[in-house]
Design a protein that fits this description.
By secondary structure, the protein is mainly beta. It contains two helices and 22 strands.
């Protein structure tokens, strides 16, 4: 409790949990995004509307997703993104999450979660950028890995962090108190909400969606243009040959 006594008071709500048992097809509005539990779609196939792109994860069971002629069955441990309109259909005993990003056209991507992150983060934690921004500023999906014995520095984020506890156990500490975390929990860290995570004897893995980023390619800075050489000079530095705005 000593952590809580030293925290400055804040009127910003830092952390919220969402109950799968209360899930509906309307989802939960979080800023401009919508969070759904996959439990809400068990009644049958659902058409996901065109005005969103969708980021999801299957924590148990399997999901059929299809967009135009592309159709995939994803089992436990797979994450995905796809633009609307698209269809989703759950098999029995399926759980997971789905996040809607408005007015954004994602790629149709799938992948399988690894155990730890590939990038160093803070205070002994690691992170993997599962679905990177298509352009600088675009949304991204991340895996966070917390080894046992982690006590993070208190920090904030400028936008929502929406996600799920994938495995292990830990605690989220905010100015409002401590919340025990266990697999399957859906959460949102609210913008500018002070928080930190702690683990003791167990590791913890967390899926986290960011609605924006300060990282990613631009028209003048991406691997193809940077590594196209004209007489030894990168095309990035030759504006005269750049494709004009479309």
């Amino acid at each position: 409790m000593s952590d809580l006594q030293t925290l400055p008071e804040s009127s910003v709500k830092a952390f919220s949990l969402f109950d799968h048992a209360q899930a509906t097809e309307n989802g939960w509005a979080l800023g401009m995004n919508i969070l759904w539990s996959l439990d809400a779609f068990k009644a049958g196939p659902v058409l996901l509307p065109e005005c969103y792109s969708y980021f999801g994860y299957v924590s148990e069971g399997s999901v059929d997703i299809w967009e135009d002629s592309a159709r995939l069955n994803l089992s436990q441990g797979f994450y995905f993104s796809l633009p609307g309109p698209a269809n989703i259909s759950l098999r029995e005993r399926t759980h997971g999450l789905l996040i809607g990003e408005p007015e954004y056209h994602s790629f149709f991507q799938v992948g399988r979660i690894e155990h730890t992150g590939r990038l160093l983060y803070i205070d002994g934690c690691t992170d993997s950028l599962l679905i990177p921004p298509i352009r600088k500023g675009d949304p991204c999906l991340n895996l966070l890995y917390f080894p046992p014995g982690i006590d993070q520095t208190m920090h904030t984020h400028p936008s929502e962090r929406i996600g799920m506890i994938l495995s292990g156990h830990g605690v989220c500490i905010t100015p409002d108190g401590e919340t025990d975390l266990k697999p399957g929990m859906l959460f949102c860290i609210h913008p500018e909400g002070k928080h930190k995570f702690r683990t003791t004897t167990s590791e913890m893995r967390v899926l986290a969606y960011h609605p924006d980023s300060d990282f990613g390619p631009t028209d003048q800075d991406h691997p193809m243009i940077n590594r196209t050489m004209v007489n030894g000079v990168s095309a990035r530095n030759i504006p005269a040959i750049h494709t004009p705005d479309l």
